Amino acid sequence: MTRRGYMILFSASMVLLLSMGMRQSFGLFQSSISQSFGIGLSVFSLSLAIQNLAWGLAQPFVGAIADKWGSGRVIAVTGLCQFLGLLMLANASSIWELHVSAGIIIGVAGAGTTWAVLLSVIARNVPAERRTFFLGLGGAIGTGGQIIMAPFNQFAINQFGWVTALVIVAATIGLIIPLAYVLRGKSEPEDGTLEHTESLWLALDRARRHNGYLLLTAGFFVCGFQIMFIIAHLPNYLNTLGMPEWLPGTVISVIGVTNVVGTLVFGWLGDRFPKKYLLSALYLARSLAFAVFLLVPISVPSVLVFAFVLGFLWLATVPLTNALVGQLFGLRYLATLAGIVFASHQIGSFAAVYAGGLLFDATGSYTLIWQISIALGLLAAILHMPINENPVPVPVPQAAE
User: What is the pTM (predicted TM-score) of this model?
Assistant: First the structure.
C-alpha cells in the first residue's frame, strides 16, 4: 500500500475515534442530564433515540453526496455541526433543546463522520485482496475513542459536571475538521468498462433486487439494537444494581479494548472465509453472552468478564458488512449502498434506546429489553446464512437499434 494510503487509513481512523468515542459516551451523561432537568430517563432516551434515527435516515443521502462531490467536504462540514451541536447541548435549558442538539444536529452530523463514509474512503485506498482486514484495522483504531474517551468523560463528569465535560468533548471533536483535508476525494469505478456507465438509480435498483442485500440490511437492524441498548442503558442498569460509580465508564472502555482484537481478527478472517458465516457466528455469540450475563449473579467481576467477551464481538460486524456490500456491488456507490444498510442499523438503535427508556420507566426493570435483544440476535444469525456472496454483475448497456 502507498504512503498516502497509510495516511488516509490513519486520518480516517482518527475521525472514527473522535466521533464514535463521543457517541459511545452519551450513556454516561444520561443520569446526570436527567437529574439536572428533573425528568424521567425516557426523555433523554428519546433524545438519543432521535439522534440514532436521524443519523440513520440521513446516512444514504450524506453517503450519496460524498460519492458524488467527495468525502473531504462532507466530513469537514459534519464535523463542524457535531462541534456546534455539543455546545448547544452543554448550554441547553429546555427539553426541546435536548432533542434538537443531542438528537437532530448531532444525529444528522454523524452520517458524515462515521462508518459508511469513512469506511468507503478506506476501501477505495487499500488493496482489494486485503480490503476486509484494512476495514477492520480502521474500525479497530477507531474504537480507541471508546477506550480513551469513555473513562475520560466519566472522570470529567464526576470532577467538573456534565456541562463542562460536554465542552471538553466539543473541543476534541473540532479536530475532525483539519483531518478532513487528508480524506478528500470520491469513489471511482474499479474498472474502466461498465461500472462508470451505471447511474446511482440503476445501482440502487440492482441492490434492491438482491435478496442477500435485503437480508444484510435486516440483520444490521439487530446490530444497532444490541449495540445501542448497551451503550445507552448499561450504565444506568449497573447504577440501579448498586455497582460502583467508576464501573460504567470502565465497562465501556473494556469493551473498546477487546473490540480492537475482535475487529482485527474478524477483519483478517473476512478475507479468508465467507463473511455471511462470520456474521452469523457473531450474532449468535452476542445472544449467548447476553443470556449468560443475565443468568450469572451480578458482581464487579461478572460485569467486567461480560464486557471483555462482548467487546470481542462488538463492532466486528461493521467491516464485515461494509466489505460484503462492496464485494457484491463494487465501490462506485459504496457510501450510498452501505449507508442504506446502516440506516437499518440506526432504526434498530432508535428502537432499543427509546424502548429501553420506556420499559424501564414503566416497569423499573430492563429484563424485557434484554430478552428482546437475545431473541433478535438469534434471528440475525439465521438471516445471514442464505446470503449469496457472489459479486452482482453490472448490466451491459443495450445498444440502440
Answer: 0.81
